[in-house]
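A further point concerns the way the authors explain their paired sequence and structure data. Nothing conveys this as quickly as seeing an actual entry. An entry of this sort, consisting of the sequence and the corresponding backbone structure tokens, reads as follows:
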Amino acid sequence: MEQSQLPFLSATELASLIKSRQVSPVEVTEAYLERIPQVDGKLNSYITVTADRAMADARLAEQEIVSGKYRGPMHGVPVAVKDQFYTKGILTTGGSNILKDFVPEEDATVVSKLNQAGAVLLGKLNMSEFAMGDAFHHPYGRPRNPWDLSRNPGTSSSGSGAATAAFLCATSLGEDTGGSIRGPASFCGLVGIRPSWGRVSRHGVLGASWSMDQVGPISRTVSDCAMTLGAIAGHDPKDGYTWDVPVPDYLASLDGGIQGLKVGVITERVQSDAVDPQVRDLVVRAIGQLGELGAAVEEVDIPLIAQSAAISTAVIYADAAAAHREGIDQHLKEYDYNIQLRLYTGAILPAQAHQKAVRLRHMLRQQILEALEKVDVLVMPTSSIPASPIPEKAGIASKEEFLEMLGGRRSFTAPFNLASVPALSINCGFTSDDLPVGLQIAGRPFDESTVFRVAHAYEQATDWHNRRPPV
């Protein structure tokens, strides 16, 4: 295979070739470093490309593998991470001008784990400012969707979605507070999982919401996603919210099919008037495919699900205002205008409103957990719409636009971050405009394995993951 074709292989394919010494980590890394400047000028997916570091990582990986010191499936595989994660000695901006000169003195735990697994770090990926949703101004360039450059690649892990879809890294890390892994995965035709809250350490991660932030992979295939999560998951004494529970071999759990598994369809979200008709048709078809693969498909009801975006927004905005208290007091005007609105809203949110949201969150979580006692996974669209056009102006134009924010596409990802359960988005087809659509699969706490198994069965029965964007 020509070196220029190596970036188009999946991460798991690369891992196999690297392990068998058919391909060198140096060759693969050189191929990515050659492709990034050819393509990323259109996408703005990277903030920092760490070319020298990547080549040093690749040479070390090559030496270790040749000498028999193989570390596992991530060894020698080129990855990139959202610029929300501390990287020792490397600029870490959080997508903000406020941190334009910030160079951490330590790695985030997830970065340390990638280093320990022998992964090659290509660089730091673009994002919405401080991972707080739809920012208008992006100081390091507006990220664009490789399927349509006039469209949003998803927020806030926008660079992770764009770079992975455009074959500018083998797999990537994003962070999901209210949907910022699943949204980019849906908009960019990828596989992204928000793991169970507490499955992955957040030490060294610039936070937006202490009670909902979660790191996870954005990848091109289910096996790539499973391999990446396996490398970063696990208890971390530096993060008191991580659970000390075993991490399964996610790759080993992919096969076996889904015969007899119970799939619960959240019909209210599938048939909602808010769902684009093409999205609905593709999701319904995908659910039908799960039935053809042997799953028992049944309808389930989650009464509070339509209010999930409003509940999530109240909790996240209040958490974010607390996390950025000093910034609000000292340099609020230095934030993006959209982020200013969110921070200010969170800062003045009445305590009783926040407490009501917390109580409603608990009720919604109980409804989801009760549903998951009857079925193995829940399914619904990841987003009510395909990738949205890039906005032409900042702010909220009308009351209707604000209400849409509280009940639109965010109400499709919000239920599962509120419930702290694992949720994955997988591409289930394309609209007439060739925009990807995501099917969302959620599971029981710490049962990512079953979520992966359902997603993998669907992926192997379809060929959506083989399409390439036109960049």
